[in-house]
Each structure stands twice: as C-alpha cells, then as structure tokens.
Amino acid sequence: MLRFNAILLAFFLFSGHVLLAQEMEVVKSDSVAKIEGQLYSIHVVQPKQTLFSIAKAYEVKLSRIAFDNPGVLDGLKLGQALKILKSAQGETKPVEVSNEALELDGEYVLYKVPKQQTLYAISKEYNTTVSAILDANPELSDGLKVGSTIRIPVPKMLGEKQTAKVEMVGLPDIIKNEVVRPTERVVVPGKMGRIALMLPLYLTENDTLEANRLPEQPEKVYERSEIGLAFYEGFLLALDTLKKRGFEADVTVIDTENRPWKMQQMIKKGELENYDLIIGPLYGKVFDEVSKYAYENCIPIVSPTLKNDQIVTSNDYALKLIPSEEAMVFSLGEYMFQSDSTNNIIVHYGAAGEENLIWNFRKGLEASGMKPAHFPIVDLSKTTRDSLRLRLSLTRRNNVVLLSTNEVKMASLMRGMSNWVEDAYIVTYAPNAWQGFKNVEMDYFDMFRVHVPTPFHVDYNNLEVQYFVQKYRQVYNSEPSTFAFRGYDLAYHLIQNLADINANGLDFLQQVVETGLQSNFRWKRTANGGLENSAPKIVDYTNYELKIATD
Known about the structure:
Mean pLDDT: 78
Shape: globular
CATH class of the largest domain: Alpha Beta
CATH topology of the largest domain: Rossmann fold
Helix content: 25-40%
C-alpha cells in the first residue's frame, strides 16, 4: 500500500538564516523538458534567488524541488538548472517563512503558534502529520496555545554523497545485541510463533474515501489511520529483513479502529485464541479490553504507545515500551557513573514529586556503582541561588542535575544562572518532561548543554538509519515517522526473541539488552505487574542540535 504523504525534508539545513528581503523576484520559466515520462519546468538560478523564492514563484513544496534536485539543500549555484515538476506546480499556497517564527533544533523546526491556527493546518504546511507533531509535543494534549513554541519534526535529507553507497538489496541487521545473557544463548532461525498485530487502520473509512474519489483527485489516507499505517509499514520492513535471516512469524493484522466493543465481540467469538504474542492495540480503552483477555490466557501483550503505568499493574504478561519518568530518571543516574572527577550538584525546589525523582536518580547512581554522596542536594525552597553559585567550581566541570519539572521556576533559575557561565563550566541534566517546556528559551538549552533522557531518538547520520530511510522511501514513497521506526524496532526485537520467550517465559527478555533504530530495549519487571522498557536514550542540545549524548 502506497503512502500519499509528501516527503519530509529539513528545508532549513542549507542555511542558518534566510534574509527574505534580499531575494530577487523570480520569473517562472517557459522552458519545459520531458524527463522519464514527466514534464518539468527548467528554471535557471539567477543572482539573489533562493530555494524559498523559487518555491514561492512556482507554488510548489520545497520538498518537491529538493527531491527532484539532489544536493540543493547544500546551497544553490548561479546558473544552476533546476527541474520543477509541472504537475506539482500550483498545488500549494506560496511558501512564507519568517525567521522570527522558525528556528532549527537538530531534527525539528521550532514554530511559534500564531492566532487562529490548527494542528491540521500546521501539519499540511510542513508536509508532516498531526500524529508526528503530537508525538514531538506531548503537552499539546491540552491544545494549541497562541504564542507558544512547538517542535515540528523534519528528518534530515540524505545527500548524494551518503546515498550513493546505499545498495538497496535489503536492510542490514539493524537491531544489535549490546549485552545478551546468558552468553551461551543460541537462536535457531525458523518459525517463531503466532502474532496478533492490532492497529487502528480504519480500513472501511479508507475504502469509502477511495470509492468517492474522483479520477482527477489525488489519493488520500483517512487521517486517523496514519499512525497505524506507519507502524504497519515499519513492521513489514522488519518482517522482510527477518525473513532473509531465516526468522519467520505467522502475523495476523487486526483492524481495531478505536472501538472497545469490536474487541469484546472478537474475544467472545474466540478469534484471539492461540496467539503467542499480541502487539497493540494502540489506544487505551481498546488495549484494556485485550489486556484483560491476554492476562487470563497468559499471552504477552505489548503496548507501543501508552505511557500510563496502569497498563502493567497487576498484569504479569503486559509490556510497556515507553519508560515512565521515574525509569528515565533512574537511567539518567546510571548514565552519570563517569562523574567521579567532576563537581556534582542536585538541585530541586522541594515540590511534591521531586523527592521521587531524586530517589530514583540516586538509585540509578547506586546501580552504576556511584556513591550518592558524590551528588550533594540543594533545595532552593530553603536557600538562595547565591548558595548554589558558591558551590560551583571554577576549575572543574560542574554537573548540575535539575530534578524539577516546574517550568516557571526552572526558566527563572536558568535566567539567573546565565550570569555564571563566563566563570564556570556548567553541564545540566534534567527529566524528560523538559522536552515539553515552552517557556525556557532554546538559548539556555544550548548554553547549559542540557541533557535529557528520551524514549525515542533517531540519529539520521547513522548508516543503518539511512538504509532504513532509503528502503522506506523506495517501498512507500514517503518519509518514515516515529511510528514507522517504532513498528520496525518492535517487530525486529520481539520476533527474533519470540522462540526464547515461548520456551523460557516472558522474563527471558530481562536478560536481553538491544539497540534499535529509534528505541533501546532493556526490560525490567515492575514491582506489582508486567515488564517496562527501562532504556531511554540520553540526548543533549549542545549547538542547538538534539543528538545522542557522548560525554
């Protein structure tokens, strides 16, 4: 099934600043050429013309020009001939970009929300999906707020130098086993088992859209099916790669839509019997219905999307992919094991919930062999900022762990700390919730080298990621969203371990630590229920980029 989303491109990569006032007016070319059966306008670049001004004149998406003219994101050359697809011209409104509204944040464009704007309109303007924007901005569950800044995901364009060496024979073995116990483990390829893949595909609605579509109208996908469809596409690519390695599974795809009663009917009819693994459903109420059945029949069930800890409570067979805030702070503590030679400080405001963050962080320190005493605690509700400043070293690196999710107080603290950076080298560490902060300026994220744990992160400079992106483009004519990566990673991880799970029980997964394209996997049994993935990625914002932390 083909995707009909436009290809996402980071159209700010070729230039940090675009001075629109200096652009030369673009006159559309009358020159037309037929290339590989398609009609193109041939535009010759004139002085002071930019990709923005050319796209505006021809009323095409920047992504379309960049797709048909590889390398233009590195900059235009005077006299360069650009191919601009005739059938794409006039499909969009002129592209108008304001430097004040947009900034580059690694894999995101930062967008300041104007009045009377909607998520749907933003998604169409930047060739992405509502689901992708929501995934990058969890706080939008409360709705858009005028004047707030949100992140619009735009994956990096792979240039000619990178893609020229990509041989499209098949995907490599992308998920790696970093640590596997027992060390003598041997996986024998073959049939792994039966899997029920439960996704909101809304097949009936898509069939209706297709049936009512006029011949001259473009094909469309029902909006609410985009998440499920992207997950399914990534899952299929993993199946294809695993099959080449000799791993196969009998997968049944079930269209759950978002209707709990539909699952109730299937359960009553016995249609979920004899499965070895259930992946999904993606929505909470539907998942709850299937989870009850899975528990009663001892079937492992995996949630790729739900964050609520309740889904693993009292269900020994439930697995939750997205780590809790506490689990991510624990991992942040583990990450700090290398901090013996630095000056370390934990800062908080004594608010409800912060003690729990501190407790989990210190447990992570202990798990890695670090003594919590090496991280003294400063409660700013009981002392002044000057006392924090006096604790900073002027000769050593200062690791300042800000274990608070109070956005207002953290924004105020960082404004005050900005006066200290000329004298002290400061690196900060914070909970995942900071990625949803709207009132902390990005300058501070860079100035203080903010590190946060995050459930999902894609490094587009990674060769294995580039293989996946190229294959996805080739097969689906679209860009992979976070859900496509998630479908691939989960399928690859679970299917190659499914035989061992069936033979040794679900707790076998606690012995396996693996790294995927977007997710890390390290399952831990919760105190009162199922398994939670406890392996976030630690990323930092240095130089206004969101990247895997290496220090």
